[in-house]
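User: Can you model how zinc ion sits in this protein?
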Amino acid sequence: MQVILRQIGECSVRRAEPRDLIPVMEINLKTLPEHYSDYFYESLLAELPEAFLVAEISGKIVGYIMCKTEYGFSNFKKLGFVKKGHVVSIAVLHEHRRKGIGNALVEESMNGVKSKKCDELYLEVRCSNNEAVTLYEKLGFFIKQRLKSYYRDGEDAYMMAIEFNY
Ligand code: ACO
Ligand code: ZN
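Assistant: Here's the modeled complex, given as structure tokens:
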């Protein structure tokens, strides 16, 4: 059964299903220079469906977010080993931006990773990507590190993270 997590006007945010992966890959190809194998999408959906979400308008997928979980050193606690959610990729089709869809995707995926008892959520974003950095900052993420030449074209990334308190 499809559960709608959030409605923003005519746009519904819900968990992705296997049949959504092709349109998700198409949005990724159109909107971002970082691409992944079919297998990687399938494995993220299998491993963390709670935080692999799509935004849909009249049956058309217009945005997605996909995440994974990892164990590692805390971005917040000294000497802490924690369970972390990692936003692998998020995008909204250009014609549907600035309507609150990106915000809803991140907020709902935060609920998803919290349901898996993650202590933190983090991501990397191009330092030049002001839209995305602003979105994450508004949601409470902090820039924790600058990762030199993180991207294949040599651009640096900000590593941004948010801590959850239960
Ligand atoms: N200029 C300034 N601030 C912006 C802009 C912009 N163009 N777009 C979003 N923001 C900020 C604003 O503060 C906005 O709130 P407001 O509209 O109330 O002012 C807030 O972000 C939320 O905006 P949304 O409408 O919820 O975001 P949107 O649906 O437009 O999606 C996204 C944002 C996903 C970053 C979109 O611009 C996009 O798909 N970009 C291309 C792909 C991309 O860069 N993805 C992120 C890469 S990093 C990663 O994947 C981990
Ligand atoms: Zn990453």
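A couple of observations from the model: The radius of gyration is 15 Å. Residues 86, 88, 123-124 surround zinc ion (ligand 2) (CB under 6 Å).
User: Helpful, thanks.
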